[in-house]
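Work Package 4 report. The design task specified in the project plan requires that, given a folded chain encoded as structure tokens, an amino acid be chosen for each position. We show below one input record used in the internal validation round.
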């Protein structure tokens, strides 16, 4: 078991395959436990770090490619995700502010129009009443 782990660890460390290989992509802490599981299941090693683990029935033979993801790649992905999230939040906030401003402007315009109409109607009524009382 220990030799199996050692051999796999060394092969993975030397190879540093990219994440485009098909199979199971494992992050830093996860892949060691996966290797341990594969070795416990009496898998075998090949030069391309391919392991075959035999699961208990009714599962079929499980084939896993262990891929070491460089720390730099993970950091870049995290940075890109954070930047995209910040941009999305800023865009949503801008849209919300624009909608609020439009609603406020519409309400103010409606209030002004209503006040002007009321003032004009009241003036007409007052003029009509004044004209009748003078006549």
């Amino acid at each position: 078991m220990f030799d199996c782990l050692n051999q796999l660890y060394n092969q993975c460390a030397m190879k540093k395959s990219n994440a485009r290989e098909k199979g199971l992509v494992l992050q830093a802490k996860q892949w060691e436990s996966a290797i341990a599981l594969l070795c416990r299941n009496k898998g075998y090693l090949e030069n391309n770090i391919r392991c075959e683990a035999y699961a208990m029935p009714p599962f079929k033979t499980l084939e896993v490619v262990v891929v070491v993801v460089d720390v730099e790649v993970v950091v870049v992905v995290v940075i890109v995700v954070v930047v995209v999230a910040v941009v999305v939040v800023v865009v949503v906030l801008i849209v919300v502010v624009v909608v609020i401003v439009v609603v406020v402007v519409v309400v103010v315009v409606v209030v002004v129009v209503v006040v002007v109409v009321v003032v004009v109607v009241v003036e007409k009524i007052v003029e009509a009443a004044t004209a009748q009382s003078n006549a």
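Residues 94 and 100 are 10 Å apart (CA to CA). Validation will be extended to a larger panel in the next phase.
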